[in-house]
Here is the input.
Amino acid sequence: MDVKKSRYRIAYLVSHPIQYQAPLLRHLSNDERLDLVVFFMSDMSLRSYHDRGFGIAVKWDVPLTEGYSHRFLQRRSPKDRISWFRPFVHLPIADLKADGFDVVWIHGYAHQACLRAIWSANRAGLKVLLRGESHLCSHPRSDAKSMIKDFWIPRIFERVDGFLAIGSMNRRYYLHYGVPQERIFDMPYAVDNGFFQRLARNAQRNRESLRSSLGLEPNRPVILYASKFETRKRPDVLLGAYRQLSSDGVSEPYPYLLLIGDGKERAPIQETAYSLGWSCIKFLGFKNQTELPQYYDLCDVFVLPSEFEPWGLVVNEVMNAGKAVIVSDRVGAGPDLVKQGLNGYIVPVGDVEALADRLRFITSNPDVCKKMGCESLKQISAWGFDQDRNGLLEAVASVVER
Here is the structure.
């Protein structure tokens, strides 16, 4: 890579401090070639707030703003809620230009402040990078909405100098809307691999005590779900597939099913599960970042059956614990992280039979399951923050020196 400047100044605009992004921003800030300043629209996540997906108050147990330069933009709306209009903030593009910034990096375009920042940067002569989560396997929409999207997205993208693709499905999305290949750079969606690998290793010594505290018999395999209980996550599909693991439809399946998370769909799913009279299904509620790795370590196979999932960083997390994974073909992480038959499976969304078949095979073959887990750990170790840094550097150098 031919980098002409020794250091680039980057202004990063994002909605609020995000638990997944904080360690990445620290990693980027430790590189002497990057002078990164993060501009937040809201500080809602620094305190307890109501998460609409989980349906409960959440306060993250990991540092969100330590180790990197950041500022909170002045907002006119006091509400914590983030929507198209809220909060109303302004990124001072003219000041950024005067301060010698090279690039404005924007996370997503589903907020009016992000679009205004793109337009303002164009007028000021600042280069724009965009990183988003979209892919083509989205929610069904009306013809009118599709027409509006097809009209506006290419016009927005024309004003962006470089696109930071989080994975192959995201890359195809940009290509679909006419973005030239040479303007797309790989910046994979990653988690703090070191953090999750370390906590998963530490959890191994307490694995049996955790198993005992949950009332799980030794040696029986464990299937894990860890996500929000929302309709689009399709926990009902997982429960339906799990029921098919029963030998006669009445007796308990041999594997356990653990479900972590909360949300409005938890109550009906839990009611259905409890009506079966089985003790092998456990609803464990919301677990914070530092709590999750012990459950990743405990499980044998992880399932994310979503009908729409922009990425699914929980897949990254559980792979760091060296586990087999099964996802639907609507999960953005699938094509990049799940290698069919090697570290898990990709199944058609909503296909209860296919999911049950894969679960039956994995939980009945412990040696295969263990081998898949080793492959997961190997793959995810090469999908991390170093790759993100390299992709960002390549993108910045390309658009600035163009």
